Amino acid sequence: MVMENQKFILTKKLSTLIYGMIGIGVLSLAVSFLIGTGAERIAANLLLNTYYFLALGLIGLFLVTVHTIAESGWHTSIQRIGESMGSFIPVAGILMLLLFVFGGLHLLYEWTHEDHLDEILLKKVAYLNAPFFYIRFAVYFGVWVILAHFIRKYSLLLDKSGDLKYYRKFRIFSAVFVVTLAVTSVTSSWDWLMSIDAHWFSTLYGWYVFSSMLASGTAVLIILLIALKRMGYMGHVNNEHIHDLGKYLFGFSVFWAYLWFSQYMLIWYANIPEETVYFYERHKNFSTIFYVNLILNFVIPFFALMTRNSKRGSLILLPVSVIVFIGHWLDLYQLIMPGAVGGEASGIGIPEVGITIGFVGLFLFFVFRSLAKAPLIPKNHPFYKESLEYHTQY
Amino acid sequence: MNRYITAYYLDEEDLLKGLGQLKAKGLEIMDVLTPFPVHGVDKALNMRRSRLTRVAFIAGVVGATLGFGFQAWVFTVDYPINIGGKPFFAVPSFMPVAFELTVLFAAFAMVIAFFVSNKLGPAAKAVIHDERITDDRFLVVVKVGDGEGEENIKEIELALAEAGAEGITLKV
User: Fold this and answer.
1) Chain A 269-298, CB below 8 Å of chain B: which residues?
2) Taking 60 as the threshold, does the pLDDT of residue B86 lie above it?
3) I want to staple B138 with a disulfide (CB 3.0 to 4.6 A). Which of A98, A299, B15, B71 is the partner?
4) Within 13 A of A112's CA, how many CA atoms are on the CB side?
5) Complex ipTM > 0.90
6) Are A180 and A151 in contact (CB under 8 A)?
7) pTM score
8) Which residues of chain B make contact with A304, given a CB cutoff of 8 A?
9) Is A38 in contact with A105 (CB distance < 8 Å)?
10) Residue from the list B37, B49, B92 with its beta carbon closest to the beta carbon of A268
11) C-beta of residue A42 within 8 angstroms of C-beta of residue A33
12) What structural domains does chain B harbor?
């Protein structure tokens, strides 16, 4: 059923739930301090969650822009969800900046300990130093926030007026965003994640992180879409749209596994100590997460989403999306924690679970706020009609 | 003996409309041949979904098992060699070959299954109903039952003509 001017309304119940989740987050942050959790562990948790939800925002926007420049009609009907996910980018930027400024930088990154740099780190000072780090930080967020702002702006202007000149601008900004993200997603993952293990490096790392985020971003998009459908919105979205998103989730999960294996296999086979030290730590102290990560992010989505029917309804797709969402959080956990906290001080307890719940609440708060601002259907988009008429042969 | 009637349309919209009418009259449509894929024909013909995916899955599992199993047997039982100090049963190094064999088996099995189920292949006899189906004609093939006499054939031909088809010919 198509309701062209339908807007999302945040119900009392839902907003109470969201405030409750944010409350749990703040509370568990306070509790973690009180029970004497190490400052490094708390900083690492905050980095994990700010990065994870920032990446979800970026991927939401990435999916919108990449479908815009590819002129794919089907995606137009779910465009608003991706745009709304993008509204979290500035929030994550502020939180991350606060984290770094108030001690996080020194706690998380070994290369900031300027008096104790060894030979290897001294060679990397030209790139890994605090001023340049903040300059890059400013550039990333500056570019992302400005582009996100204009993409959203022209999308809404297009919707209001139906003037194709806005569509052209929307496309130009989309193209710029895709190209920019191709570079910045990689370099930002070096800055914020790979430099935790500053002695180690992998040329594949940036794509590996990006593929991980692509899978979880798609999973979140599916979860939001199915949730909205259950709340009675997005009636114009049919099984074909969901099927396509399911194919994405399947494909990106396989892609992630491919990159995971490519990185692991080369390091395992070459067996050079300065490279294997990275996986040695993960095998020794994080062995459960090491294998659970593979099961959640590859084995389960691969077999569960293999058949056609499983991708076309919410019965299997929704649980798998939730699993992938949790799985890639764990993937990020094992990227950050071994280097930043180490095997003995880390674990999964109140700080991890509570703070993550808080971030989920915060993320949903901004996504829903942004969804409520504009009609859910971009009815003046040139591909809107095509998007509704979406049927496949098979 | 296989008997059938062919007729063609000059436009895909007419074809889809005609197919609806023919089905309403209860004719058994054997095949539709078009110069390019026409959306909606599959639905109009009530085509079953392809079972090729199942073939691919089974063949893939076989390929993966063979690829992995053979390497495991060679490197642990038949001819263990110490390669760079790695364990004999080195799972990561078996993965690429297992993956390649999965793809190879699935691909070949699909091609062969496709040929078999469509009676295609190097020695197959090509039936050309109308040379212009590779150009601009949309051909419908209607089955004529074994026991049907002249009258029934006339009826089918009439139905085809009513549904807007041209060039109606009976073929044996």
Assistant:
1) 269, 271
2) yes
3) B15
4) 19
5) no
6) no
7) 0.90
8) none
9) no
10) B92
11) yes
12) 3-35+133-171 (3.30.70.120), 52-117 (no CATH)
